[in-house]
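Anyone opening a protein record will find just a pair of labelled lines. With that in mind, the following record should read easily:
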Amino acid sequence: MTTFIAQLYPDKFDFNTKENFIAINTAFDRSQFRFGENIGKILTDTALVLKELSEVIPLKFYSHMPSDETFLPFLDSYNVKYDWYVLIINIQRK
C-alpha cells in the first residue's frame, strides 16, 4: 500500500504484515480522456491480462467511486478471480 492511501484509510490496512498482490483501480473519472474511443478493446485486453496474472498472484480491485466499478463486468466475463474493496471517504471541502 502506498503512504498516501495509508493516510486516507488507516483503519482498512495492516501495514505490519506483508502480502503480495496486485492492486487494481481503473479510475473511471474522466474515462474519455483515459481510455478514448478504444475503451472496449482496452478493457477487454486488460481483463485478459489480469486473468493470466490472477492464476499466479491475488488481485484486489479497489473502487473509490461507483464509476470505477464499470470495469467489473469485464473481469467477470472472463472469470477473473479478484477480491473487491470499496473505499469511500467523506471529505468536507471548505
Notes: The chain has one domain: 21-86. The chain has a mean pLDDT of 82. Strands lie at 22-24, 59-63, 83-86.
